[in-house]
Specification:
Chain lengths: 391, 285
């Protein structure tokens, strides 16, 4: 009986495997979930879902399947637009008003009516007493008051009256469809590893011990060597603000993956393009700047330089003195990036914009020329290529 | 006394879904992976499961340098070399130099034990993959002595993760999974009751209100969690804070006393104070 459900989960984009399905069958055979549907739901969830980001999707598919609405999967995957539900106003209801809307019929009828109304309604709605939205008296929506209402997309609980566990969809804000997990980024970055011995000698150096013992006429002479560590040094320069706001998430992920993979990681921020200074703390960007010259002097040329930025700006910002949008720069950005590239021969530029869009922006072409074409898209494949260029 | 079902204990409130996940893992003898916000009682769960079911507990705390092999056994070659120089008789038996790890100890236990693998995400990214076979078959091979170590009873394995690294799919497929979501007000009241049985009802509900208000502030870097709440209530009791200090007409504009126990990050404290300040200006009394 579970096989159609299993396929529905897979159609719905969950990576449920046969092992997990068998595990669930096993668990049911031992009578774990014989008591109620709720028990079965809990059991199925803990056997089939392995990522809290998928819990909400599981809830929706479970709800749909066990009500027999298995034909409307595509509709279910379409989100109710967030804007309908955003909390804009709060309705203050008096006791009498609450009494007026005390009864709306049974739960099944509510669900049927919800489906109908979802079909009818195609705009955001707020207040009022019929349409789905927020802060109204309709039985559907959130932040409103209706004792038998169905809660949709509400954060935190108000009147606490939605019915079934999976329909509460408590895991809603954990759902994300980010393709690029940090695990993949980390695995890609591992290729940059270069091991070297350093630090305290705490491991037995076997070949040296045998060698020295033999020379010692058989008396044991134990030799120790320090453990191997990743010796790659990385200098990361991140574009921040402006057009980069759309890419904050992927930049954060790259950054967090990088900071846990490399022991020597230095990072600096810039806005749109590199000039005579960069900064480490975005909130004190005006007061605590580091001169770019100081950076090139402090970090030796065996550092690998990685820029992350969309390189989308006016070409003047790169090519002319005073082109910066934020301040008056005495020398053009192109001069500064050349200085950096002279100091750090191993350098790449990672661009979060998709590659097909690069040709439409003149500044991207300029940056690519300056970087000798070492610009790669910020995807797993692009990252791998970039890492290859860095080695 | 040995209990075969887990239903929470006198000092630990387990929600229905959590006990179901634990029971499924116990029945099928499969590992269970627990995730959740820091401070929601992930590590505590293993201790309570062991206690309520009357089983011995083995704790393996993972650090960034932990290798999978260390959980099984370690071969102390240096000690053996040294002994051979001194002419010690021990040296002829290699098993004298095999140090057992936590997993071996758990495998060797006479009754079915509970094995906690705490914060598995702290270790190297390949760590879970190195343990697949051992957790699946509950056996491993000791190359030095050419012996196969098999678990007498498949231990109840509880693994916790803080989500610092993602775990490989092959590993996840073998586990049951539970995400401890942040408890709602009712569950939270039960939890506090278990820890402070003599707490006055009004104080509890006021404290909970204040607590959830702090949690609802948008943009906090680290939201206060259950363990912070328990610490805070302990402080409130120790300082003998009157209920009135928690009750204010305009709850929005009040800073709860001793809020340093709830917010652990100076940026959060700053943000919170600013919001309260703005609220006060917006609604003068």
């Amino acid at each position: 009986m579970l096989i159609p459900f299993f396929y529905m989960l897979r159609e719905g984009g969950m990576k449920t495997s046969i092992t997990e399905l068998l595990m669930l069958h096993d668990a049911m055979k031992s009578g774990l979930a014989s008591q109620s549907v709720d028990d079965f739901y809990f059991l199925a969830r803990s056997a089939l879902v392995k990522d809290e980001a998928h819990l909400d999707r599981f809830d929706r598919i479970f709800g749909a399947y066990f009500k027999g609405v298995d034909d409307s999967l595509s509709d279910l995957l379409q989100e109710i637009p967030e804007e309908w539900l955003q909390l804009q106003a709060e309705l203050q209801l008096s006791e009498e008003e609450k009494g007026l809307i005390e009864s709306m019929g049974g739960f099944d009828e509510l669900m049927k009516a919800l489906q109908e109304r979802l079909d009818e309604q195609d705009e955001r709605h707020e207040g009022g007493s019929k349409w789905i939205g927020t802060a109204g008296m309709s039985p559907f929506g959130a932040y409103g008051y209706n004792p038998e209402g169905v809660r949709i997309g509400q954060q935190g609980s108000r009147n606490r009256s939605a019915a079934k566990v999976w329909e509460k969809r408590e895991y809603r804000n954990l759902d994300d469809s980010v393709e690029l997990g940090t695990r993949n980024i980390k695995v890609a970055m591992r290729r940059l590893r270069k091991f070297a011995r350093g630090g305290a000698a705490d491991q037995l150096d076997l070949s040296d011990t045998i060698d020295k013992t033999a020379r010692n006429g058989g008396m044991l002479d134990i030799r120790m060597a320090p453990e191997r560590h990743n010796a790659v040094k990385v200098l990361l320069c991140l574009d921040i603000g402006g057009s980069m706001d759309d890419h904050v998430r992927i930049c954060e992920e790259t950054f967090s993956a990088a900071s846990s993979e490399f022991k020597h990681l230095e990072y600096f921020y810039f806005h749109n393009f590199v000039y005579e200074s960069m900064w480490k703390d975005n909130r004190r960007r005006q007061s605590e700047k580091t001169s770019t010259l100081d950076i090139t002097h402090k970090y030796t040329s065996d550092y690998k330089l990685i820029f992350v930025g969309d390189a989308t700006m006016s070409p003047y910002e790169i090519a002319y003195p005073g082109g910066s949008v934020e301040h008056w720069n005495e020398e053009p950005g192109a001069v500064w990036i050349k200085r950096l590239l002279n100091t750090y021969p191993k350098a790449v530029w990672l661009n979060p914009e998709p590659k097909i869009r690069w040709d439409y922006t003149p500044s991207v072409k300029l940056v690519r020329d300056l970087m000798d074409d070492r610009m790669y898209p910020l995807t797993i494949a692009g990252l791998e290529e970039g890492i290859k260029a860095l080695r | 006394m040995t209990e075969s079902r887990f239903k929470g204990t006198n000092s630990y409130i387990a929600t229905d879904d959590l006990s179901m996940a634990v029971n499924a893992a116990v029945t099928l003898e499969r590992p269970i992976l627990i995730k959740g916000e820091p401070g929601t009682g992930k590590t505590r769960l293993a201790i309570e499961v062991a206690e309520s079911m009357g089983r011995p507990l083995f704790e393996w705390h993972i650090k960034s340098t932990t290798k999978a092999q260390q959980g099984l056994y370690e071969y102390d070659a240096v000690a053996r070399l040294r002994d051979s120089q001194l002419g010690d008789d021990k040296v002829h038996d290699i098993s004298n130099y095999i140090m057992r790890g936590k997993v071996w100890e758990a495998f060797d236990c006479i009754e079915q034990p509970v094995l906690l693998i705490d914060e598995i995400d702290k270790a190297d990214i390949e760590f879970p993959n190195d343990l697949l076979q051992e957790l699946d078959r509950m056996e491993f091979y000791v190359y030095e002595t050419k012996k196969l170590v098999k678990a007498r009873h498949r231990p109840i394995i509880i693994i916790t993760s803080n989500n610092e690294k993602e775990l490989p799919d092959a590993f996840l497929r073998r586990c049951f999974f539970h995400y401890i979501k942040f408890p709602d007000q009712e569950t939270m009241a039960q939890i506090v009751n278990v820890h402070f049985p003599n707490l006055k009802k009004e104080l509890l509900s006021e404290a909970l209100n204040a607590f959830y208000k702090v949690r609802d502030v948008r943009g906090l870097k680290k939201k206060p969690s259950t363990s912070e709440l328990l610490d805070w209530i302990k402080l409130l009791l120790a300082e003998d804070i009157p209920i009135e200090a928690l009750q204010t007409e305009n709850a929005q504009s009040a800073i709860p006393p001793l809020y340093g126990a709830l917010l652990k990050n100076e940026q959060d404290v700053h943000l919170f104070e600013q919001l309260v300040f703005l609220d006060r200006r917006a609604s003068p009394q």
